[in-house]
Structures are given as C-alpha cells and as structure tokens.
Design goal:
With 567 residues, the protein is an alpha/beta fold. The protein has 24 helices and eight strands. Helix 4 packs across helix 18, helix 11 packs parallel to helix 21 and helix 20 runs parallel beside helix 22.
Amino acid sequence: MKRKVLWVVFVGLLLGISIALLWQGQDSLASPEENEAWIVGIIQDNHNAPVEEVQVTLHASGSDAPLSETLTQADGHYTLVMPKEIPDSLSIQISRSHFRSIEINLTSEEIQNLKSGRTITKPAITLERQIGAAFWIATIIFVLVLVLIATGVFHNTLAALTGTALLFVVSYLGRPFSETLFIFNFHGAIKYIDWNVIFLVMGMMILIAVIENTGIFQWLSYFAYRISGGRVWLLIPVLMLITGIASAFLDNVTTMLLMTPISVQIALAIGINPLAMIIPEVFASNVVGVSTLVGTPTNILIGSYGDISFNDFLANLTPGVILAFVGLIIYSLLTFKKDLSQAKTASPELLAMLAERGKITKPEHLKKAGVVGAGMLLLFIFGERLHLVPAVTALVSATALMVWIKPDIEEMIDAVDWTTLVFFMSLFIVVGAIQEVGLISIIADSIGKMVGDSLVLTMLSVIWLGAILSVFVANIPFTAAMLPIVGYLTLTVPGAETKVLYYCLSIGAALGGNGSLIGASANMVTAGISNSVGYPITYATFFKKGFPAMLITVTLATLWLLLHFLL
C-alpha cells in the first residue's frame, strides 16, 4: 500500500513539473503586442566589463515621472518597454552608485521608429567611475582588515567580520545623512560571495574528517621512517613528498595538522631538532599543493574565479611544481645540514611507541574512503565534460561516504571548520566592497599602463608581486583582491587569453606564502602545534629559512611558466 502511494506521489510530481514546463514554454513563445517597441542596449565600465543593476529610466523631456524603467542584467543588457503613447521628445537617464550619472536624448529618427513599433538598439554605453566618500571608506576598511590579519591583533575571521560589519554600518546608517556614504546593501554584498568555494571547502572538510580518523597519516609517517632505514638524508625528502602529495589532494592546513605531531615524535626519537623536519614539510605542503585545484585555498579561489579545472592545474603547473620541489629538497638538506648531522638510531622503546601510534585504527573506513576518494578524483578529472562544478563533486562525495559508513553526523558537522568558512564569506564581502567602489579598477588600470602589451612583463609582475606581498600579507586575502585585476589583464594583454596569468598568481601567492610565518595558513597552524609541544617557531626563524626557499622555488616555477606558455 505504501509503495502504491509513493508511486502516485512520484507520478503526480512528474506531471506537475511537465505541466509547469509546458506552461512556461508557451509563455516564452507568446508573441508581443503588435505595436509594442523596445529600446535595448548594454552598459559597461571603462574596462568593457558589463555593469549590473544600473537604473535605466525613460523620460519625456521636462518631466521627472518615468515612462519606463528597468535594471541592467548580469551581462549589462537592458530593455525599456515603450508606453502606448510615445511623446515627441524622449531621454534616457542612467544612474548607479559609484558611477557618474548620464542622460542621453533620443534623436527624432529613433523616436519615429519607436512610434512605428520598431525596436531600436543603442550603442554600448560606458559609465565612468565616481570617486567619493564611499571609495575612501571602503579602501580604509580593506587596509584595516589586512593590517589586523598581518599583525595578529585579531583572529583572521574576526578581522574579516569586523570589516564586513563596518561596511554595513557605513552603508545603512550613513546613507540617510549622505548618499555618498553608501557602499552596498546586504543583497549586493552577498553577490560577491563565491559559493562554489564555500561548498567545495565544506565538502572537502567532511571527507578529511573521515580520513584523518583512520590513522592513515600516522601510518604514513612511521612508514616513511621505516623505508628510510633511519637515514635522515632520505627521511626528510620522503616526509616532504608524503606531505606534498597529501596537500595536493586534501588541503595543506589539514595535512600539517596531522603530520606535525608525528613528525615531532620521529625527530625526538632520532635526536634532532623537530624544526629541521617540520619546517621543510610545511614548505613542501605549500609548494606541491599548487599542482591541484584543491591543494591550496588560493587555488580554490583562483579555479572558481577563472573557471580553471582540476585537469588544467595538473597539466599546466605540475612540471613547474616538480622542478621547484627538487630545488626545495636540495635547499632543505643544505640549510638543516647541521641539525640533521646529529641524528642517531632510535631506541627500540621509541620505535615501538611510534609503531603503536602508526597503526591504522579504522581499516574498513579507510577502504571505503579510498573508494569514494578515487571516485571523487575521477569526477574532478572528467566532470568538466558534464559541466560538473567542483563544489558539487565534493558535496556528493562527502555525502556518499557518510551514507556508506554512517558516522556520528554531529561529529562530522562539528569537524567542519566553520570559522574558516565564515572567514572566506566575510573576506569575499570586504574584497567585494573595494571592487564595488572602483579601487580594483584603478589598480588594474595602473598595472595595465605599467606592463603595456608585454605578456612576459605582465607574467613576471603578477608572479613576483604575489610572491613578495604574500610575505607581508596573508596570501588568501591577497589572492581574493588580485583576482579581478588578473581577470582584467587577461582580457587586455595580448596572449593572456590562455589564462596564464591565473597560473602566475597561483605560483606567486602559494609559493610566496613560504616567505614568512604569516604568508600562509599552514605556516601559522604548524607554528601553533610546534609551540604547544615546546619548540616555538618565531617570525624571525621562519623568515630566515623561508625567504630563501621562496626565492628558489618561485624562480624555478617562473622558468617553467615562461618556457611552457611562451616557447
């Protein structure tokens, strides 16, 4: 009986959907009134990018009452429907916050065509930016957020939330006093959040929560010690390789959370300073993670904004990453040579302890996670043919794994780092504010004038600007702010249509994160764990080891990009 009821409900839903689609199709095919005419056109900014939500109104000359009005769509297009009675003189008024308002008078020929029921198409209209109080306020708030993040006065998420709150306070409470104080409303701010990034990160967090509970990372660390036979010159590269590969397919923050404690134990067991092991690991995490879409938070941002697939990252960046990784291994072995020379054979008791902690705790869960992970990887690689966005792949995979193993759902939801997700959402809004008021356009114009038509100069500028600034500013907010600029340069610089500049930004921001302790989230997470076990990593220590590593790896990766895209 229940099955019959379900079938009836199912068939009823199908019929309802079919009727709704047919009705919608008939509406869309319905012909307009015989004499109905339109004025259509497109509105863009000085970068030839469409401007959304521009107020377009039609007026009779000398009248304030609009005869017709509309807002531009996401592609900048607008359509004004003509009234039944068309006056002999008409003008179009165009206005939007942060742009100069303009008025366009229609010619007598255009008016006559409209009266005859013919639609007219206006040429593209370019709006000029208007710099007012909102521009300076949004800029100051953005700089304040960067300073709070860089100095560590506020937690990253609190800094971004503070910036978002200030933007809304100014927009909503300041607007009644002066229209020039308005930045954007809540609806406008939400549009700047990249939900593909948010759901991709959330899905990966759930998957990682299952995987890390199986003990696989602890097993890998102990396995690295065993295959190296205690030879520290081999152990360090093996641990770096494991860390790098894990970072490429999970994320570097989680990888370091899991690798750091066991690495400290191995280092103490063989009598060397743990920093000689975990600092090279975090370097490797930031370098090798660049080779995939999900390897670093910056790549997730870049891939979503630039429509760059999992395959694109692998094909275009992996050879350069391998080259940089080899250089990093040589640098690490030479830099920490003195510490590594003090290594000794671990005692049987310590080895037994490492072996005990390096066991797989949930083998069945690990097998199932391996099956789902392989399926997810295939969808990342081939899903673009089905127009399957990475966020959907991550969410479907995470859900499938939870349905299969039936974990404590509350535990899984708690495993999601909501603090990071709120940070991303708030950061998108703060960066969206400076994009809304035109600061991004001004910076893009300045860089465009500096590099001219030279693709080589543009590539070098994006790579090294990202690398150097990521030393002083966390690379996630820097990347989010740079993406619209790179998007503009991609459209204007000859030869950049291959999306090479997005790869340049990926290399500069992620590898540049090795230049200082605050350069990447993985650095700060690793430092926090190391400090908690009595081996602090100071800013000066990390800078002394990391800045040369950054210069070496970025140089090697730059050589690959130049060879790959220019020759």
